[in-house]
Structures are given as structure tokens and as C-alpha cells.
Write a structure and sequence with these properties.
The complex is a heterodimer. By secondary structure, chain A is α+β, with helices and mostly antiparallel strands. Chain A folds into 3 domains: about 110 residues, Penicillin-binding protein 2a (Domain 2) (Alpha-Beta Complex); about 45 residues, no CATH class; about 325 residues, Beta-lactamase (3-Layer(aba) Sandwich). Chain A is about 35% helix and about 25% strand. In chain A, strands 2, 3, 6, 7, 11, 19 and 20 form a 7-stranded mixed β-sheet that branches. In chain A, a hairpin with a 5-residue loop joins strand 2 and strand 3. Chain B is an all-alpha fold. Chain B has a domain of about 40 residues. Chain B is built from 3 helices and no strands. Classes of the chains: A alpha+beta, B mainly alpha. Chains A and B meet through helix 1, strand 3, strand 9, helix 10 and helix 20 of A and helix 1 and helix 3 of B.
């Protein structure tokens, strides 16, 4: 080999390599400098994508872990009829194309069966159609005629995953599916006023869904990534990833079984008395935990859109009533607490007027004539005049102060349902007769929950607690995030006074206004209440609010229970608390005793036999 | 000393260039292989995540169905449909037993055995039963 040839070869090779490098360099300059912006735009548009991962909304559970609200994935099926058309047009052989079309048609018939639609409806969705579009946006099919191919025709929404699996197995051309989360309420109407609901847009509207939305909703995650030609994500090109944080589970204090018991009782009340509304509340006096709260009318959470707005109100906190005789616990408790009277102190309840601060005041009417009554009898027989005299012993200021301490005229801070504060005017705004009328529960307005919590204070040694509905927050793995304990608002009565008043309240069912509604062995303490409704500015003599608010066992209270029935229609007589509310109270109490395994205060003799192993 | 011929140097250079090409080529292929592996692993991982999500979704669905099936209203309907006649006990039907019923029943059984043994002839054949022995 000559030297000249070697040099030439080296030169050619070097030139070749240099040329290659230059070509690559020039291309790189074009790609990275000259066309950079355009190419970047194209790449970003064609390949980059941000995939949003929606957080799963947390569940709402009752105190025993039963699901009250949860999220369930459902599919929305849609049709791209043009895609099917294109698939068939690809096949040039008419015989094969006809066979493909027949196969697809057979699948669509099966699809109709799975979705519960008629074959005609399904076939109609699979007919390629055009839809109008703004001319400036009409560039997709090359013609500017104000029409574009309709590639999304909704076929069916809310398809269950199990049904969708069978649909997907058919592998139907042109059928697309989109997953969405739908809120479901397994209990349907159970605790509907407490749970609330999400509307079609997924916005929390009422109840726990709305108030605890911050805990429930979680945080959406997102992935910045690239996609291939088939729009599939290329996971290796993920450049940023924010993990999704599912919502926490909210555990309420209510118990599904107790809630069901009271809702069942409300149905009975509704069928029997056709009231304007009725409310039943059950709570634990020691913690203030609401075990159940139900209203009539009610509604089904899974069909909330069909429910009238009135049925969606949580009457227990949104409506005010005159508490009536249930309010007598204020005057009696205050007078006992101040040491002004003892249970045996006597008052003349036969008088019709009384001198008070230099004026003669007319006393309210009684339902039945009374003579001299002890404080215990005033409570048991619900004497209006007796209660008025107790309040007079206290004086306006002290009586008002006690009413405030019982929680009247103030928000209980119950979070669900738009609570109102009620009406309790200061003594400066009272007229001359208020001191005689307010002790019997007139000239004051309170929500059913306020009345309930006032009675709960008596059952809880005189301590007024906040009604508690939120028990705890748990994360998606079931780990405890936060717990909520009892919250004391005020010490209304001394514990000894509260215990004494509780014993006096047992007289109501033993010999008083609710005689016959006692449950032997369980020391039911309670107070009936009946108030005339104010119609057109006057007290009606035919329309009443009847209530029974109480607790048991009186010596160690475990349950506080309120039954309030507004405007019950009774066939004869008036809708007194003892007529419309006390029977429901007793019926519920009997069930709660069994369900909560509340032990009797005095064990029945048959228990002794069992304690000895059956030997007798 | 005689210098090496020019063509030998060129041949060596060509050989080295080829070697460099082979080396860089294998590096490139290695990089491609690694990227391919990364891509496959990432996609497998994405697939697993999708499957986990799918299982969780189905689990939620099953939980919702269970909750709907065991809610008190549904159970009461089942009770009626199946004519089971189940009802909440009334207080009069309940016998409340304080303390451990096991110990009490064991005591009762032992009392019976001992009293039998006291009246019967021969050695007593009994076993003392207590709750703790179970």
C-alpha cells in the first residue's frame, strides 16, 4: 500500500467524520436554536400531559363503625360512533366488512341487555352524527361548515363496576367509559338531617358532608408526564408527581340502631298524629354525645333532589318552640340550688293572683285545680302557679341568669343544620306578667336541642355540656387522627341539687302528669310539656306542641331522651305531651334499655334465682 | 532506530477508531437497554398501582353493598320476608345475671356432684369443674 493512498484514506475518513459531525451539529442548531420555540410548543402539546388523580372522599361512619356515607365508583358510558365507522371502513373486503359489522351489532344487542336499554336506543347512539360547532372552532374535519363529528354521545351513566366489567369484556368498538365517584348512603334516609349530602356537582350541601368537608374531601394529586401516540401515559417520563391524599373518615357519635329506633317511632307518630313536625333526640348525659337525632318529615339521601326543602330541615336546631312545662326545671332547679326552698316547701297553688314587688299579678291558669302543693308536687303535677311562685322567690335577674345558664337564648354550637339561638329576653324587656309566664315555658322560645340539653344538665350532675356529634377522625388506613371529647359549658346546678331534682322528676311518671309511663326498675325521670301554638299572634286553643323530655335511670342517668311533637292532630282532647309524646318516650326507652343493656336500679327477684345458678 | 511505517500508524488509528465506535456503540446500546428497562419497570409499576386502585375501588363497592345490606331497615325487611319473627326482647323476658356465670354454674355442678357422692356408696367418681380449667 502506497503512502499517498494511506494519506488519502485518512483524509477521506476525517472529512467523512467531520461532515457527519457538522451535519449533526447543523441539525442540532436547527432543532435547539432556530426551531426551538415551535418544536417545544409541538412537543408540549403532543406529548406532555398532566394527569389529575382525584382524591377519594372519606366515609362517614357511626360510633360503631357502620358506614353512613361512602364513595362508590361508577362508570359513564359514551359512544364514538365515528370510531366504529372508521374501523369498518378500514376493511376493504365487503364480505369481511359485513361480517365485522354483524359481529359488532351482536355485541351491541348484548350491551343493551346489560344496561337495561332497548336495542333501538343503543343502535341510535351508534349512528354517526354531526354536531354544530362555532365556525371559528370548526377546523377538525377540514371543512368550515359549522358542523363537526360528534364523538361523544352519552349512553348511560351510573353504571356499576361489576356491570362495566361485563360490558368491557364485550370489547365493543366505539364505546368509551369514564369513571366518576358517586356518593352513596347505604342507610338511605337514616340520619339524613345529620349526614347531609353532596349535590350532582359534588359540592357538599348540608349536614356532616358540608360541615366536615375539610376532613372528608382530601387533596387531589397530579402527575406531569408524557403520553405516546395512543395517548397512554409513558410512566418513565414522569417529571413531577404530587401524590393524591384521600379524605379522612369522619366518625359521628350517633348509633345506627338507636337512630333507626327513633326514626321508626317518628313514623308511628306521623301515622298516628300527622304533626307539622316531630323531633326525637337521644344523648349520653355524661359526654353530651348525640346518640340519635331524627326529625319528621325526613327524606332519602339517595334521592335528595325529590325531597321538598321543608323535609330537609333539621327541626331539632332550626325551629323554635315555646318549651312549655319542660321549662319548669329552670325555676325548680334554681330555687332548690339557691336554698330558697326544699322539696317539702309548700305553696298555695289555688290562688289566682299574687302580690309581687308592690303589684298584684294575675297567675296563670292551671289544667286542674290545685290547693297547697309542695315543690315536689309542683314538679310532678306541673303546676303553673307553683312554678311562677318559685320564680318570684328567685326574682327576675336570678331567674333569667339561671335560664341563661341552662343554655336558653344561646347557641349550643351544634354544627349541623343551621342552628338558631332561640329567644330569651333580658328582664329589662319583660312586661309585668313575664315573671309569672316564663316559668311555665311561655314568653321564651327554644330549639328542641336546647330543651334537651337543659334536661341533660340535670342528668349530668348539673353540668351543661355542648352537644357532641363528632367522635373522631380516622385516616384512610383506619388510624386515629383526632378525637373529640366532652366539652363543658357551665355548671348550672350543684351536683346534689341536680340529683335531688332528678328524684323529683321521677314523680312525674310515678304520680304526676305522665303517670303510667314509668318503667319499673328503671327510675324514669322526665317532664311533660304542652304549649299552645301562636297562630296569627294569638295562643291557639286547638293547636299545641306536646313534649316529653327525660332521662333514666334517675340515680345514675345513662340516656337523655326528648320527644317533641308539633301540632299533632288528635281525635279527642288536646295534644298534650302525655298523650302524644310520653307513649313514644316509653316505647323508645324500653328498646334502649335492651339495646344499651341498661341495668335496672332495683334488680328483679328472678335475677336472684339466676345468680344462684338456678338452684331453688 | 527505524521509524514505524506510516500505514501501520493509520491502520492502528483505524483499528482504534473502530474500537472506539464499538465501545461507544455498546455504551449507547447499554444506555438504550437501561432506558428500556426503566420504561418497562415504570409501566409495570404504573400497572400495579392501577390494579391496587382497582381492588380498592371494588373493596369500597363491596363495603357499600354490605353496609346497605346490614342497615337496620334492611335487616328488618329480611326478618319479615324470611318470617324469622325476630324481635327486640322485652324487659320481662330478661334475666340479668351479675358476676361470672361460668364460675356460678361450675359451683352448682360441683355442689350436685358432691351431694351425689355423699349419698352414694363407694369412692366418689367425679371431676371438679372450674371455669379456669377450661
Amino acid at each position: 500500500m502506497s503512502k499517498g493512498f494511506a494519506n488519502n484514506r485518512l483524509t477521506i475518513l476525517s472529512l467523512g467524520v467531520v461532515a457527519c459531525f457538522m451535519a449533526v451539529g447543523v441539525r442540532l442548531v436547527f432543532l435547539h436554536v432556530i426551531d426551538r420555540e415551535e418544536l417545544l410548543r409541538f412537543v408540549n402539546k403532543a406529548r406532555r400531559q398532566i394527569v389529575v388523580e382525584h382524591a377519594r372522599r372519606g366515609a362517614i361512619l357511626d360510633a360503631r363503625g357502620n358506614l353512613l356515607a361512602t364513595s362508590r365508583s361508577v362508570m359513564t358510558l359514551a359512544v364514538d360512533a365515528w370510531s366504529l365507522d372508521e374501523y369498518l371502513q378500514i376493511e376493504k373486503n365487503p364480505a369481511k366488512r359485513a361480517r365485522r359489522a354483524a359481529e359488532e351489532q351482536a355485541k351491541r344487542a348484548q350491551l343493551a341487555g346489560l344496561l337495561g336499554l332497548s336495542v333501538a336506543d343503543v343502535e341510535k347512539a351508534f349512528v354517526p352524527a354531526m354536531r354544530p360547532v362555532k365556525p371559528e372552532a370548526d377546523q377538525r374535519d377540514g371543512k368550515v361548515d359549522g358542523l363537526t363529528k360528534d364523538r361523544w354521545v352519552k349512553l348511560r351513566e351510573g353504571v356499576d363496576e361489576s356491570v362495566y366489567d361485563r360490558v368491557a369484556a364485550l370489547n365493543i368498538r366505539g364505546l368509551t367509559a369514564e369513571r366518576a365517584y358517586r356518593r352513596v348512603y347505604p342507610g338511605s334516609g337514616l340520619a339524613s338531617h345529620l349526614i347531609g349530602y353532596l349535590n350532582k356537582e359534588g359540592t357538599a350541601v348540608t349536614g356532616a358532608e358540608r360541615h366536615f368537608d375539610l376532613y372528608l374531601k382530601g387533596q387531589d394529586g397530579w402527575i406531569e408526564s408524557e403520553k405516546d401516540g395512543a395517548r397512554r401515559e409513558m410512566a418513565q417520563f414522569r417529571s413531577r408527581e404530587i401524590p393524591v391524599q384521600d379524605g379522612n373518615d369522619v366518625v359521628l357519635t350517633i348509633d345506627s340502631v338507636i337512630q333507626h329506633i327513633i326514626e321508626d317511632e317518628l313514623k308511628t307518630i306521623a301515622a298516628k298524629y300527622d304533626p307539622h313536625f316531630a323531633t326525637i333526640i337521644v344523648s349520653d348525659p355524661q359526654t353530651g354525645a348525640i346518640l340519635g337525632m331524627a326529625n319528621y318529615p325526613s327524606f332519602d339521601l339517595n334521592n335528595y333532589s325529590k325531597a321538598p326543602l321543608d323535609a330537609q330541615r333539621n327541626y331539632a336546631v332550626t325551629d323554635i318552640i315555646e318549651p312549655g312545662s319542660t321549662f319548669k326545671i329552670v325555676a325548680a332547679g334554681a330555687a332548690l340550688n339557691e336554698g330558697l326552698v326544699t322539696p317539702a316547701s309548700l305553696f298555695d297553688c289555688g290562688i289566682t293572683s299574687i302580690d309581687y314587688k308592690g303589684k298584684t299579678l294575675k297567675l296563670p291558669k292551671e289544667d286542674e285545680p290545685f290547693g297547697m302543693l309542695s315543690v315536689a308536687d309542683i314538679v310532678a303535677h306541673s303546676s303553673n302557679r307553683g312554678a311562677a311562685q318559685l320564680a318570684m322567690r328567685l326574682g327576675e335577674e336570678r331567674f333569667y341568669d339561671y335560664a341563661r345558664r341552662y343554655g336558653f337564648g344561646q347557641s349550643t354550637a351544634f354544627p349541623l343544620g343551621g342552628e338558631v339561638r332561640g329567644i330569651l329576653e333580658a328582664p329589662a324587656k319583660w312586661d309585668g306578667l313575664t315573671i309569672t309566664r316564663m316559668p311555665m315555658g311561655h314568653a321564651i322560645a327554644a330549639t328542641p336541642l336546647q330543651v334537651h340539653m337543659a334536661m341533660s344538665a340535670v342528668a349530668n350532675g348539673g353540668a351543661l355540656l355542648r352537644p357532641q356529634i363528632l367522635k373522631e377522625i380516622r385516616d384512610t388506613n383506619g388510624n386515629l387522627v383526632r378525637t373529640f371529647g366532652p366539652e363543658k359549658r357551665d355548671q348550672v346546678l350543684k351536683p346534689s341539687t341536680a340529683a335531688l331534682l332528678a328524684q323529683l322528676l321521677t314523680g312525674v311518671v310515678r304520680e304526676g302528669t305522665a303517670k303510667g309511663f314509668d318503667i319499673p326498675g328503671f327510675e324514669v325521670a322526665g317532664k311533660t310539656g304542652t304549649t299552645q301554638k301562636v297562630i296569627d299572634g294569638k295562643y291557639s286553643t286547638t293547636r299545641h306542641v306536646g313534649s316529653f323530655v327525660g332521662f333514666f335511670p334517675a340515680s345514675r342517668p345513662q340516656v337523655v331522651l326528648s320527644v317533641i311533637v308539633d301540632d299533632a292532630k288528635v281525635t279527642s282532647g288536646s295534644a298534650y305531651g302525655r298523650v302524644v309524646a310520653a307513649p313514644a318516650f316509653k316505647h323508645i326507652a324500653e328498646q334502649l334499655i335492651q339495646y344499651l343493656d341498661i341495668k335496672p336500679v332495683q334488680p328483679a327477684s328472678r335475677s336472684l334465682l339466676a345468680m344462684q345458678g338456678g338452684v331453688r | 532506530m527505524k521509524p514505524p511505517p506510516a500505514h501501520a500508524l493509520v491502520n492502528r488509528l483505524i483499528a482504534l477508531t473502530l474500537l472506539l465506535l464499538v465501545f461507544s456503540g455498546s455504551l449507547g446500546l447499554g444506555a438504550v437497554w437501561v432506558r428500556q428497562e426503566i420504561s418497562q419497570t415504570a409501566n409495570r409499576s404504573r400497572g400495579f398501582v392501577a390494579r391496587i386502585n382497582d381492588v380498592e375501588r371494588r373493596l369500597d363497592e363491596v363495603n357499600a353493598e354490605i353496609a346497605a345490606a346490614v342497615n337496620p331497615d334492611a335487616l328488618l325487611r329480611q326478618n319479615e320476608a324470611m318470617r324469622l319473627g325476630l324481635a327486640m326482647p322485652r324487659e320481662v323476658q330478661v334475666v340479668r345475671v351479675d358476676g361470672s356465670p361460668e364460675l356460678r354454674l361450675a359451683g352448682k355442678r360441683n355442689r350436685e356432684i358432691f351431694s351425689l357422692a355423699a349419698t352414694g356408696a363407694g369412692a366418689p367418681a367425679f371431676r371438679v369443674v372450674t371455669a379456669s380449667l377450661r
